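Researcher: Here's the sequence for the chain we discussed earlier.
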Amino acid sequence: MEDAPHLRVSDQEREQAATMIREHFASGRLDALEFEERLQSVYAARTRGELDRLSADLPVLPPAPPTGLERARTAISNNEFARGLLAGGVPFAVCTTIWALTGADSSFWPKWVLVFTVVSALRGARHGVTGDRRARRRSRRHEHRYGESRPASQEPQGAIMSEQPGRGGESLH
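Model: Thanks. This is the structure I predict for it:
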């Protein structure tokens, strides 16, 4: 957007710029008079160019540290074991609730859902905490077919490998 200084800005963009100006004031880069002037100019700005000129002489702020919730989401999304537990935990909770609401007089049949959950979570943990299973599978397939190892990071992006016999693993894209 920096290359389009004539475009009009939204209220959200003005608020982001105002927050940035406040951070620079808190860091001591602006005195009180300059802070007030810039803040008024931010709220009066109509175009991207006007906002850019207000912060042109200020360094780029480092990104805000992630919140606890964001760190937890990242950890769970990167952890195959936790993802497997969460994916199986919901059906287990639903089945247990159904078992309890229907009288709970039979054997505890939701245990089988729990067994499935634990097995799939352990399989996910075995495949690695942060790895991409598809990339590893492609790398193993390539090594098996061609006898050479290729790191998963060198796999072609977006290519779909053929699984049909006789196609030799040719890319379909």
